[in-house]
Amino acid sequence: MTPLATVVSGPRARLFACFLRLGTQQAGPLRLHTGASLAAKNYYEVLVLGGGSGGITMAARMKRRVGAENVAVVEPSERHFYQPIWTLVGAGAKQLSSSGRPTASVIPSGVEWIKARVIELNPDKNCIHTDNGKEISYKYLIIALGIQLDYEKIKGLPEGFEHPKIGSNYSVKTVEKTWKALQDFKEGNAVFTFPNTPVKCAGAPQKIMYLSEAYFRKTGKRSKANIIFNTSLGAIFGVKKYAAALQEIIQERDLTVNYKQNLIEVRADRQEAVFENLDKPGETQVISYEMLHVTPPMSPPDVLKTSPVADAAGWVDVDKETLQHKKYPNVFGIGDCTNLPTSKTAAAVAAQSGILDRTISLVMKNQTPTKKYDGYTSCPLVTGYNRVILAEFDYNAQPLETFPFDQSKERLSMYLMKADLMPFLYWNMMLRGYWGGPAILRKLFHLGMS
Ligand SMILES: Cc1cc2nc3c(=O)[nH]c(=O)nc-3n(C[C@H](O)[C@H](O)[C@H](O)COP(=O)(O)OP(=O)(O)OC[C@H]3O[C@@H](n4cnc5c(N)ncnc54)[C@H](O)[C@@H]3O)c2cc1C
């Protein structure tokens, strides 16, 4: 895959980016784990389900609380991915290889990696079952299983990805196809979708639209492209301040947004996408495309949907302030698999990890959890190859901004943060349990101003 030439301008900006990249690259080998355990024990004080963003972060924090030998992570994948960078991979601004590392290298040293898939949770007996026939018991359980991608709920997918002109930034298997489709684009409709389900990073389906528009402009194809965002939602973004800024960009750049349009079928051999009008069920529209970016329907992982820890919709049923399970006090949830009523992002996971750490430490001492999660989440809305609007907000969809300037403006500094600083923070601080979100920075900046 040929990456797009670096578009960040100015020697200072480049130096800063280089420094961060260097740090990111060098961080891995220092903490190589010895690999998955073959002779795992069958009891752990803290058992973590899922070794993604939330699982690894909590394993690192729990290691400090109870000692590495008392913590285990159940995770089947050989590779751990920093998914937020896939937005830039799909647009050719980053290499896919920069987004992943061996799982062995991110499991905190001394913590057991149980390389298996959880197939059953039995919280009444304090144990879980794995697909390799093991039963593992625990004193405390942290559920961090993420959100499931349901491409097959769209007729014609996932097999449609075998054809050209179609991609999806949401999966490691299809993200590079987005970049290929962008490069192959000649003229016609470039169509971007948003499904009729909860999703992770609700901004990502439209970020790739802005990047595509910028790419078409750069390569002289803009006048031949009709750019369409067909979304199941009724608004462009859930927070008014940022929605207003995005609407201006949409008008300025002549992008078409159609609301309440849900992708139900892809006829990839004919380059056609079929949408249902959610306001008039049964009414469909067929759009021919020269490029299609699919954001798939998503749902709680199957293993949770029917388990006792799930709410009626299948999400882990936790207290929205403490992250403790509502029925099982020794069970906790973090991240995309929970029913926390906030936008599902890695930034939210970072903020949740600090709260959950505190909650568990008090529960371990038979005390009542006191620290309260305010729903902090963040979405760096990439609006071009060197521009980002940094949306940060809480449970009430009210802005909760870190920096002492208007974050609804597009900024190069925020792009550098998204592209280089955040990956650095993720690999070196968050996964090691040292990053609980920007609340401290926010206080510092805002104190300085008052
Ligand atoms: C294209 C894209 C762009 C994004 N952009 C941003 C952004 O700009 N900013 C941001 O903050 N966030 C962004 N995100 C979202 C962010 O990546 C997720 O919200 C975050 O990774 C959630 O962490 P998690 O631990 O809940 O889930 P994950 O990190 O997905 O981890 C879940 C883990 O559970 C494992 N698992 C699943 N089922 C089982 C099972 N049965 N047994 C054992 N293990 C299992 C999986 O293998 C996985 O490792 C983006 C995501 C995507 C895809």
UniProtKB/TrEMBL annotation:
GO BP field: sulfide oxidation, using sulfide:quinone oxidoreductase
Chief location: mitochondrion
EC identifiers of the protein: 1.8.5.8
Swiss-Prot/TrEMBL catalytic activity: a quinone + hydrogen sulfide + glutathione + H(+) = S-sulfanylglutathione + a quinol; ubiquinone-10 + hydrogen sulfide + sulfite + 2 H(+) = ubiquinol-10 + thiosulfate; ubiquinone-10 + hydrogen sulfide + glutathione + H(+) = S-sulfanylglutathione + ubiquinol-10
GO cellular component: mitochondrion
Top-level EC class as recorded in UniProt: oxidoreductase
Domain of life: Eukaryota
Coiled-coil boundaries: none
Domain FAD/NAD(P)-binding: 44-162
InterPro entries in UniProt: FAD/NAD-bd_sf, FAD/NAD-binding_dom, Sulphide_quinone_reductase
Swiss-Prot/TrEMBL cofactor(s): FAD
Single GO MF descriptor: FAD binding
UniProt-annotated location(s): Mitochondrion
Entry keywords, A to Z: FAD, Flavoprotein, Mitochondrion, Oxidoreductase, Quinone, Transit peptide
Its biological purpose: Catalyzes the oxidation of hydrogen sulfide with the help of a quinone, such as ubiquinone-10, giving rise to thiosulfate and ultimately to sulfane (molecular sulfur) atoms. Requires an additional electron acceptor; can use sulfite, sulfide or cyanide (in vitro). It is believed the in vivo electron acceptor is glutathione.
Family affiliation: Belongs to the SQRD family.
Protein name per Swiss-Prot or TrEMBL: Sulfide:quinone oxidoreductase, mitochondrial
Species of provenance: Panthera leo (Lion)
